């Protein structure tokens, strides 16, 4: 046991407490047992004498003698009946044995002592009440309990009941008990030491385990568990500590994960900031070129440079570049609305095949300019969906523009419609180069442009696909992009009504 350990403290406290307790019990019994016995004996004798007196007037000579005999047997005492003058009236005749003769002799000595003691004698006669006192045998030096109780009839003392009970057995018992307590005390010392050691070990062992686990938790080691399986408060505390350790461990792991996510978010924010800068540069470039063209051609018109048909050409250039600027500004406004969180769709029912046909026809001129082939793969008719036609047209416009922009000359664009359960899937695939694996997820982010070469002839500001993503999310659509054997395929789904 450690010098300042809880085991030693528990052992010491338990030993001291039990020693004090057993010592107090032995001392109390040694000092007060005899008095307690005398008090109890007095109460018992008084009670039994009162019962005897209650039937006294009903007894005849034979029944009285039998009642006296029963009283002596039940109370281990001698009883005698005296006249009111103190003269002996009736006493049990002793059997001829030394013990019985000695008790009768003691009885007669006690009666004579009572009569000769005028104070006790007249106390009974005057008060007519029971008195109890101790009589010591003059030669044997043994103590006896004497009870004198008058039988009062019509206010007059008829007879006096005299009871004598020896106290010698209790004195002997007290003496023997004191010797016996010496051996009991020695045995108790050994037993207390053993039990205190077991008790202290039993209590301190789970506490030591709890302390060890708590120390490890304080050192952020949450793998340790308390091996206390009892169903008491210590067991409950162990379960709570194990639960706390597990929760702290999980929380710490969550914090580590959150920290890693935060690092990822910071890195993503850095990338986003980089894309913003690229976007600003791209938008500046996109705006600078048409503004320069519009400014140059407008000044040419002002100065009268073009003549004849050239005037119309100058005006067409100014109009086209104004449209490009308007398209860029419109995309920025659309994206701002979609990302605001307050945008609401104008939903309605429409036939999806008719809807698709009405859109792609507007791009036939651009397709023919690049000598591209357009294939419509669909056998779907009269299939109605629920959505916002205007916003879905923006989706298809952006996807078709991307397809035309990135499809090489003399290659194909394929539009496919097919049903998948209660949904219809729209796929727009273009032949050409693949999208790099790292770009497949990032192309949906705003400001991101897969082509970083800065080639103006490809066009775009990196906003189109971000607009597509936000519109399809509002429609709760499943959408994405994959690399196919011949190129790239964009797809999205709509609910069939």
Describe this structure in words.
The protein has helices spanning 6-54, 61-75, 98-116, 118-127, 168-218, 233-303, 309-338, 352-360, 364-369, 389-406, 464-474; strands spanning 78-83, 88-91, 131-136, 143-153, 156-166, 348-351, 373-377, 384-387, 412-420, 423-431, 479-483, 487-495. With 497 residues, the protein is an alpha+beta fold. The chain folds into three domains: 1-54 and 170-219, no CATH class; 59-166, Beta-Lactamase (2-Layer Sandwich), CATH 3.30.450.20; 344-495, Heat Shock Protein 90. The strands form three sheets. Strands 2-1-5-4-3 form a five-stranded antiparallel β-sheet, with helices on both faces. β3 (131-136) and β4 (143-153) form a beta hairpin.
Task: List the defining traits of the structure above.
alpha+beta, 5-stranded antiparallel beta sheet, 5-stranded mixed beta sheet, 497 residues, 12 strands, Heat Shock Protein 90, 3 domains, Beta-Lactamase
Chart the SSEs and their pairings.
Layout: H1 6-54, H2 61-75, E1 78-83, E2 88-91, H3 98-116, H4 118-127, E3 131-136, E4 143-153, E5 156-166, H5 168-218, H6 233-303, H7 309-338, E6 348-351, H8 352-360, H9 364-369, E7 373-377, E8 384-387, H10 389-406, E9 412-420, E10 423-431, H11 464-474, E11 479-483, E12 487-495
Parallel strand pairs: 7-9
Antiparallel strand pairs: 1-2, 1-5, 3-4, 4-5, 6-8, 9-10, 10-12, 11-12
């Amino acid at each position: 046991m450690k010098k300042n350990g809880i085991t030693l403290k528990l052992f010491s406290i338990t030993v001291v407490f039990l020693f004090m307790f057993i010592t107090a019990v032995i001392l109390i019994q040694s000092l007060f047992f005899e008095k307690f016995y005398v008090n109890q004996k007095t109460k018992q004798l008084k009670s039994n004498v009162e019962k005897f007196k209650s039937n006294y007037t009903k007894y005849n000579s034979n029944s009285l003698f039998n009642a006296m005999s029963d009283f002596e047997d039940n109370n281990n005492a001698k009883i005698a009946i005296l006249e009111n003058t103190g003269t002996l009236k009736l006493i049990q005749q002793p059997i001829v044995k030394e013990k019985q003769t000695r008790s009768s002799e003691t009885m007669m000595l006690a009666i004579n002592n009572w009569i000769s003691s005028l104070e006790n004698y007249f106390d009974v006669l005057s008060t007519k009440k029971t008195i109890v006192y101790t009589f010591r045998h003059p030669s044997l030096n043994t103590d006896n309990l004497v009870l004198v109780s008058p039988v009062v009839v019509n206010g007059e003392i008829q007879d006096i009941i005299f009871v004598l009970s020896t106290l010698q057995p209790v004195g002997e018992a007290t003496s023997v008990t004191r010797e016996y307590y010496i051996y009991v005390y020695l045995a108790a010392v050994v037993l207390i030491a053993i039990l205190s050691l077991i008790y202290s070990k039993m209590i301190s062992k789970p506490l030591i385990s709890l302390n060890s686990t708590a120390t490890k938790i304080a050192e952020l080691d949450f793998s340790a568990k308390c091996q206390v399986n009892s169903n008491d408060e210590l067991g409950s505390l162990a379960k709570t500590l194990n639960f706390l350790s597990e929760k702290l461990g999980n929380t710490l792991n969550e914090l580590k994960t959150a920290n890693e996510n935060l690092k990822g978010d910071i890195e993503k924010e850095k990338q986003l900031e980089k894309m913003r800068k690229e976007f600003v540069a791209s938008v500046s470039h996109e705006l600078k070129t048409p503004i320069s063209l519009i400014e140059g051609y407008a000044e040419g018109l002002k100065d009268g440079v073009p003549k004849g048909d050239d005037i119309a050409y100058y005006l067409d250039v100014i109009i086209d570049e104004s449209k490009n600027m308007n398209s860029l500004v419109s995309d920025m406004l659309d994206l701002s609305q979609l990302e605001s969180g307050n945008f609401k769709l104008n939903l309605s029912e429409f036939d999806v095949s008719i809807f698709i046909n009405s859109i792609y026809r507007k791009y036939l001129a651009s397709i023919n300019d690049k000598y591209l082939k357009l294939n419509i793969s669909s056998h779907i008719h009269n299939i109605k969906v629920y959505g916002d036609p205007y916003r879905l047209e923006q989706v298809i416009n952006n996807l078709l523009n991307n397809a035309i922009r990135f499809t090489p000359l003399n290659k194909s664009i394929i539009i496919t419609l097919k049903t998948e359960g209660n949904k219809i899937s729209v796929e727009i695939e273009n032949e050409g180069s693949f999208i790099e694996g790292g770009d497949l997820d990032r192309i949906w982010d705003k400001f991101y442009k897969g082509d970083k070469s800065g080639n103006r002839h490809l066009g775009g500001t990196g906003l189109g696909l971000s607009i597509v993503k936000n519109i399809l999310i509002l429609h709760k659509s499943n959408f994405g992009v994959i690399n196919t054997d011949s190129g790239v395929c964009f797809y999205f789904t709509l609910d069939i009504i």
